[in-house]
Amino acid sequence: MTQAATRKARRLREPGLLTTESQEEFLRFRQTFYDRIQPCDAIERHFVDWIVMLAWEVLRFIRIKAELINGTLLQALENLLKQALSSDEFEFSYQRDDAAEDLARRWFVDDAAKAEVATLLGRLGLDEASIEAEAHRLRAAEIESVDRLLTCKQQSLEKALRFIGKLRKTLGDRLRQSSAAQLEEDAPPALIERYRKNAE
């Protein structure tokens, strides 16, 4: 793809989407909100789009948090294996480190390596959950930062949902008042009284 085509593709993407995010997936995601909320005018569509973007960003931060841990699993496993492998089996410490790194890489793709890792970790009273815990420890500062952003976005989303609920209630009240006023001008008294009772 040429640079011009790349720039054009970026312009055609939905605002707020990252290059790594699927526009088709986002449009399906947005459509579920439209189907559920069914905005009736441009104002409601504006606020639904706002809600959609906030909800999308909540999912984005959840995904980022998971990827922070997933991207650190190799380093975490290497750290644990360096503790589990006996120094007596190696003449030099770098040989133990190399063995730990090699076994850690094979753990992701090789069942035999998984079994060997399970045995080594078992000697320390550890298991696969310990790998995740170590990865979390290594990325604690970044995860804490993402958690703060995630909490902020979730709070904003809740406020936006409450706001559109209030907006609809206010609009409904105004429509009922407008309809009642119009009826008072055009309808006979008996119909006006019946409408008021139904509105109440």
Oligomer state equals single chain
Low-confidence stretches: 5-12
Provide the β-strand percentage band.
under 5%
Give the helix proportion (percent range).
Answer: over 70%
- Based on CA atoms alone, the radius of gyration comes out at 29 Å
Largest sheet: none
Output the structural class: mainly alpha
DSSP strand tally = 0
Question: What is the overall number of helices?
Answer: 9
Report how far the terminal alpha carbons are from each other: 63 Å
Shape: elongated
What is the arithmetic mean of pLDDT?
A: 84
String of helices and strands:
HHHHHHHHH
Notes on the protein architecture:
With 200 residues, this protein is an all-alpha fold. Among the domains are: 21-70 and 141-159; 73-138, no CATH class. It is 82% helix and 0% strand. The protein contains 9 helices and no strands. Helix 4 packs across helix 5. The chain is elongated and about 95 Å long. The chain starts with a helix and ends with a helix.
